[in-house]
């Protein structure tokens, strides 16, 4: 056959031979053994209290992530040798929300059974997927500690609307999937939570760092303290990022935006620090709604959360048998 | 008390003493006997196959409607003497979609039990609310004929996603709530429906007018034929308008937009003609998604559907005991 | 009557029994004695030099405010017991701008006559409403000190366009409604004011803190100094917030946006600090234009200005006879 | 000096030697005798009942117009030899709306005194400029007939808001600037006008063609009838185009949009037909709000109104002494 | 391995077992013999005179096309049995535009050499790709007739800017790739072309149907006449659709939009009629700019152009050896 | 002639007699001797790897700049006496990108030959114009040092796409136009550059300050060190600002946005500090794409870069013979 030098796959983008992009590392999974980081999408947002298009975030975060370089010039670390599996998305039921949530749980648990050294990066979806995600994670990993970056406690009662994006940590605590003493909430914001829910987390022994704490203490110190506490009491640590922890100017595409939030650079620093710790075995990012974002800014922030997590893991000397 | 001549209710708009607006006729319902037209919202769109903000349409349609004059200069008919009750919205469950649909059914049925001469105008929401709406309507009214303006048959199977916005007429036919012979579909569009579903409606004796029929036959003739047929076989006629029957240039805010659709003026003519008929006892408008619309254009079209329906009723000499 | 458990007022939102929102505290005023905070809208922006939709801000700020919780987790203060009256809007004349401004003055003065312990929160509108607002306030309260957060002096001459959004402090100074020595301008920005107007405020003894001052001195110190000075020379202090004092990235919906502005957190800190002071008896927010904003971000900032003001008042032990 | 072949005026656009654009014909006026068409802007929209950015339309219409070719392929008419003066804009007062309206009147009248053969094309602005424009025109020209394309009568009472964009024809009729028998309203729309105002125009002998008339009679016939009537009773004819006469899908950038309006092609046909008539001596276009338009579509329609008017004038053999 | 029933490929969409979508027919090409329709993208728009993002149209048109059903209810024709190859995109050089154009020519010619029965559907890109596309097509097919739907002649001189989106038919005529007598231009619009270029096409014997012709003659008649003429003088017919032939209200996403254009239904009727003819062997769609479109409306129109072309081919009994 | 007091040039804006705006200083150049600052536009962005509308930035930056006051209240410096020439734009070839780049080079060099004391402010366009700009500058000025604010090294190989916006510093280094030791890159961002390109600049002796450096060292210190080094080794210093050095929240209109970038205030401080230095003889701003910006925020930042540069020059006592 005559060569067709100028015919390429539809929608290809420019290739520079001297640049390795994250998109070059990420491979569609075809069932082989998972030994390291594996992305999985949980595109559910019908469970949200307010209208949300967070179901589109797995797509936009993947796209944003793919375009960045593998090289951290700040740490002179290159991820170019990694292979990252993209496991795909959990399929969601059109009209049965609890069934959709259960699919997240079952899929994560099942994957861990076959691939115990899998390090999941879960792309929500809204915060309701946190309960099934962590439930699956906990059943595979044992006692779990959670470091949650969030403007909100997310411990709403389940009577007034069922298992929504406002309830995941209520479900986790009530079901004893996690112990309140093993939960650290970072970035809780003024006038964005009710007193009864603050009382609830206090009563469960949850550690709460408000934005005032974040402004007045260094992120490194907050993370150091948190890890020191958790490493004694849990088997594994899971990091949950509700993107609305970030200030509305920097993460304009979250459903519940507002001023007075965290700076992205502080979050990135926290995440790379956490990633470095060998007990940190999972990361999730939720509440990014691309349909109300500006130029996928919030998905770009999410991509940098993942990049900083991977940088931390590389610094921490991640190896998988 | 000293008078405060310039203090008015928040968000009031300009009042011209010589203009009666629809907003002046529409009164929030407080439980009294309903004798004529009553608006009711069914703000459900979590049941949609694709992401939809149609849950916001009851609000935007009400707002658009309120701003128009009560006076039809074309027919020299003034609705200024009408009183229209706004019954409010059916409350939707946050995470249980079938429960939400059932609430639509129960609320409509209950209202008819207490207020048999109610003439409902149901504001969706997505097309999934058509099944519970018409089910409630049918239980109150007896044998029902339906004239459906829609680009799609909406007879999808229920196995692949449950009772969604693609299935309402399947549910109505399978449950024998309506008889296929009493269903008229107008505006069905090219390359927007599958052959199996066309076969399905043919097998159920449904009357189908495609956009080709609409382009080549006058709307008046199509409606005349339809009414003549239905008035012999049913007790009451319900008009269902999926706004995506209109061309995308004229109704840009529907989830499933495309070219080749109906002209608004043809729809208005059909609706006022239908409204005139004494057996036509209900109207619904679905699939308007204000979150993707341009300047609420599609809600404005919806408002004119209602206005033309009322004009028809006035022409038809509507009276309620 | 048969109960209709699922029928609710149109456009209702989700209710969580364990959450008190600001919207639960705010009541439409019906003429009773006003003893504490009362919101009043001044929806005027035809007076703006450049095209402005600030007339819509009373609506969007109210909406943003209503959605936030009453609970400050940072100060563990709950406003849940407050009652806040919403007095409504001053009605504006369609074509007579000075008449509209006068209505603001007359309404505020009249309200104070009947309700001397009213603590007004005035929602503009553009900055032109500052002159009639403070004039009414001053006639009720005596010698007034003003702390003005603004990128601009707003002392333009009145010959070149009449009483616009560029002139309010000129009018206040020229009419001796306030004394220059009792005016503090905070956040004045580089390349956003002319030398003659800087000279003008200097000549009137106005205290000016530029953004350079804000960057190099703590907000607490600036406020402390300002209050110490004013508490000796005035009877009452009024806080005026032109939202364009904030950086364009954080308040994108002001007519005159630009870089190099104040951080929202600094403004919130200043406002709660000021609110705490017993002599601070009024707050206004102007120059929020929702028609050019992104996701009502700027109205959300305005809502937090109000929340921080109320928090300050609670900390300060606000009581009304 | 060394040549700088590649340096051109800032913001220049591509030049094709074989294309004459309207922008090539239009010259900034420098006070010389005006003998033919002269553009003049009246950028006033603070007089609008609802928020309007129509003050920006003179700019966007000029820009749209400049980009079109001078050649009508449909009539094989080339305007390439015309010279069109751009007289500039009437300056508007920042805070005195009636003063602004008066400036329109005075400027137009003054220009006619010096330049009696001027053929004005007035670019609004909102419809309130119609009263001063036509008043100036009438004082210069004698008895005036007006053909008004509009969805609305625009005869609101002046008590409820002063001389706004809803009142111009009321003012013209009340002041006897024009006689009701010499006014033709074309495109009046259903549910967009009140009965009292319909009665008012009927009582003044105004000729009203609703959209129903437009749909059922050819535009040529309507125009022929109108001209035949007016040419007997007036000295000069003025054409007023409120762009909201066009359907919202085709003119999305008008403040008061809605479905059921006129097709642009019908308007163009009417305008070129009217332009051909020697008694037609003025054209105005109002109610284009570029701030809510999509891609300046509505300004492009306005540009084509002007182009068709000029084509008509060329067909009619326009000459000026 | 344990089954993972809920894990699916990332970004999958809902599957209804009873619906066949175009996306199910279109297969990524892997080098096998091409026997029927093959899509190919030419994502070039740096060649445009005005800023254009038409390079993104191959992606958005493919996406729009994939979502439509294979079934034409108007003709009761189902394309479900077709296989359509997606050959991918011609890769474009970052900084050498003429090289990019040449790659289009070479790729098309090369493909025809190997696959002489290929029926190309070329997705631009801007109109500059028409010259290399048709040049490649002509070298493979012999004497070519072209039916061009376009608001513009596109015969600009090449001196003033090189081979741009304004010049393709000049290049085709000058290079004698096609004969003026074999070119039919349909939809040429008023005030959108210069007299010299109208003269140019007249001098070359091009058949020109303006929008006036389109409004006054049925599309079927225009197409019939055109085909009758061409079938005598050429070996093969190529259909070129510049989407700006459509009215701006219906195709808002073209770079050069304006009022007074063609209705989509007329275009679809023309295209299916042309598709039916056995000599019609190629189709291209150019000048769709998704970056300025509203909800991919214009790409949806493009998808329907392709669907109607395929329907025509099915009606015409397309077979390939 | 009768005076026409209210007729002004089209699109004029409000004039306040007490305000001098930058637009009052900037004069369209008419060929006279250039002695100080001269603006020149290089509206090229077809050379960009990804789609870019940076060609529109010269227009939007000029517009933003014109609206700001000449007065720096922070430094009590008034630029009101300056005259700034606007030389216009380099004309760009429609289809030959390298020709366009060459025109930038030739025009700048030619201007320097005639006007050696010209202090150019070059408004891109994309970063590809940096190579011809600095090449022209260097040929006029001798050994050049460059301080580049940029998220990226911009030293891509030229084989994979020619002289694009990713290659300018590669071209400058390879052609020995500048020496690596005389290049300082400030603001280089994590995961936005490849290791081979980091190695490349290291191998060429380029000084690199990453965002980590910027966060941990004061901008003043970085600039002081840079200037001290350069003033020994070069004849003249050129400042190049790729606006994507700024965080995406503050400069949302750059093609390659992302989180973790520089704060505008840091950039302004650096620029005014650099402007003060007598050897700094040129400034360019590139990679502002107004077509994807929000309210021209990024052009407003660019305008402040220029203002701070001028302020620095005034502080530095700029005089031209």
Automatic annotation (TrEMBL), chains A, B, C, D, E, F:
One Pfam family in the UniProt entry: Arginase
Enzyme class: hydrolase
GO molecular function terms attached to this record: agmatinase activity; formimidoylglutamase activity; metal ion binding
Protein's UniProt keywords contain Metal-binding: yes
Superkingdom as given in the UniProt entry: Bacteria
GO terms under biological process: L-histidine catabolic process to glutamate and formamide; putrescine biosynthetic process from arginine, via agmatine
Keywords assigned: Histidine metabolism, Hydrolase, Manganese, Metal-binding
Enzyme Commission code: 3.5.3.8
Family label: Belongs to the arginase family.
Name under which the protein is recorded: Formimidoylglutamase
UniProt source species: Halalkalibacter okhensis
